[in-house]
Write a structure and sequence with these properties.
Helix content: 40-55%
Number of helices: 13
Number of domains: 2
Largest sheet: 5 strands, parallel
Strand content: 5-15%
CATH class of the largest domain: Alpha Beta
Order of helices and strands: HHEHEEEHHEHHEHEHEHHEHH
Radius of gyration: 22 Å
Number of strands: 9
Strand order of the largest sheet: 4-5-6-1-7
Distance between the termini: 54 Å
Length: about 325
């Protein structure tokens, strides 16, 4: 890929749209951080939602938002400064493996010892690095993926011990499986009053719906960043509907299709005009595991796309179980 095209696509990829659901989730995490500072004890948030809804992106946004100078100089020396510490839970996951991974990121070497010794070392390193927020991503690997109930409870109790030791918020991020893990330990539930949830988009044709508003913001950013001259627009229903069919409202998969279409447009000789054929090419090349159609969504008539979406959303509503 030519350098200029690569830079355009890279810049566009970093564009985050804070639609209402995303803004609410971000606000709840920030509330937890602010409450901790005000109360002097850890107040935490659980971020959960299906894969592709932007959890890791939000964690990295929070990390960058609260970042500061990499070092602090004091009278007694120079110290590493790491206001927000992000760590992805390794797979396969164990408590000891997570502690080891966190320490490896902090000290650039692999430590040894018992869980108790490693936990003490971790708390010391976190305090030395001036960490104010911890973000643990993919927490379902530690609590659900191929682990027993005992291992899960041990992991949750270790998180409580970590909270008590560091006295700062630990933001947990994981799939929808993690929604109720707070209920499994009373101490954990007390520490996690905030639940930030993300979900896939639903298809609503109104211009102010979350889907169309997000596509409109992405479209504006894409045309501006890539300096496109003319062409189709993401929030045009004839583009938005097949995008939804291709992804079932999964934002990550939609953006992958959009990025590919943009690359195809930029590589074409002549003027930079975004075409529906660019999206057709994207769906021909990209694996679409959530595709609602049998073939390429951008080869379908618009009305057929709408019918597939309607049938899908009606069947999805039928499967929802209301819990007391």
């Amino acid at each position: 890929m030519e350098t200029s095209i690569k830079e355009i696509v890279k810049t566009f990829k970093t564009k985050i749209v804070f639609h209402p659901q995303y803004r609410q989730a971000c606000s709840q995490i920030q509330d937890a951080i602010e409450d901790t500072e005000a109360l002097g004890e850890p107040v935490c948030a659980l971020l959960c939602g299906p894969s592709g809804t932007g959890k890791s992106t939000l964690c990295n946004y929070i990390r960058n938002y609260y970042s500061g100078d990499s070092v602090i100089r004091r009278e007694d020396g120079t110290y590493e400064n790491l206001p927000a510490f992000y760590c992805e839970v390794p797979s396969p996951a164990t408590v000891k493996g997570l502690i080891t991974n966190m320490l490896r990121l902090l000290i650039n070497e692999t430590p040894n010892g018992t869980i108790e010794k490693l936990t003490h070392q971790l708390i010391t390193c976190l305090k030395t690095a001036q960490v104010k927020i911890i973000l643990l991503d993919e927490i379902q690997r530690l609590c659900f993926n191929t682990v027993s109930e005992k291992v899960r409870l041990d992991a949750l109790q270790w998180i409580v011990s970590l909270l008590n030791g560091v006295g700062i918020p630990v933001i947990l991020s994981g799939t929808e499986l993690c929604r109720d893990i707070r209920r499994e330990d009373a101490a954990l539930e007390n520490r996690y009053p905030y639940l930030a949830e993300l979900s896939h988009f639903t298809y609503e044709a109104a211009n102010d719906s979350e889907l169309f508003a997000t596509l409109r913001h992405l479209d504006h950013a894409m045309y501006e960043i890539a300096n496109l001259e003319k062409g189709v627009h993401l929030n045009d229903p004839t583009i938005a509907a097949p995008l939804f069919v291709a992804s079932r409202g999964n934002l990550k998969r939609m953006r992958l299709v959009i990025n590919y279409a943009l690359k195809t447009c930029l590589r074409r000789a002549g003027g930079r005009d975004l075409r529906i054929s660019d999206f057709f090419s994207a769906c021909q090349s990209i694996d679409l595991p959530n595709n609602l159609s049998v073939g390429n969504p951008f080869a379908m008539p618009y009305d057929d796309s709408l019918k597939l979406i309607m049938d899908y959303q009606e069947s999805d509503d039928d499967e929802i179980t209301v819990h007391p």
